[in-house]
Write a structure and sequence with these properties.
This protein is mainly alpha-helical. The protein is 80% helix and 0% strand.
Length: 229
Amino acid sequence: MGADSELLQSVANVLSTLTILSCLFLKVPQIMYIWEKKSAEGIFIQAMIMEVTGFSIMTLYNYTNQYSLMTYLEYPIILLQVYVMFYLVLKYKNKLNMPIVPIASIAYFIAVIGFAFDILPKSILSYLVPCCAPLSGFAKVTYIYGIIKAANADAISLTTWVISVVTNLARVFTVFVDSADTKLMMNFAISTVLSSGVLLTALYYQRMTAMAPKTRRKSTRKHSHDHDD
């Protein structure tokens, strides 16, 4: 039984390492797209707020419960990337000069410091963790809605969402081995399903967009032949 436990722990450690390494680049393709295009069209600020909130709660929950760093290191890594992405979205939507931005930012960081240094009771985080699943869900549904509304997924990085699906699935296993925390496992399972939804929706519309020029070319050639006749 001990050997089996050691094997599971070894597998979990390998998966944790791969997950963390993958998440180093999770948001990078999306950040580079926004930076190069100087545009955040199709990205909703509401989705960004929900991502920042969800990743912050999960980071603080794991940190204050003193869980193994290897089981949640991707959260602060992704959070840093989301900060950069959020800044660019606000910049290219011309929202940085709004008074609410610095006020909300200061309030956010005061709350983070409060939880990190036990100024605020960590029991609050236990009540907030179950909210992360719907937060993550709403954020991903917002992405899906944006793709369907625009009937275009060119701004969505498939690489980002493939990594998201794989890493969330891996985390279900690593959390089970490390702490078997039901709240965390449920969040990761739901996130896996919803990330798959974004991936499949984006893949469908990107294929539709790729096929459109071929359809137009065929239509043009047919019209040309009809005209010649």
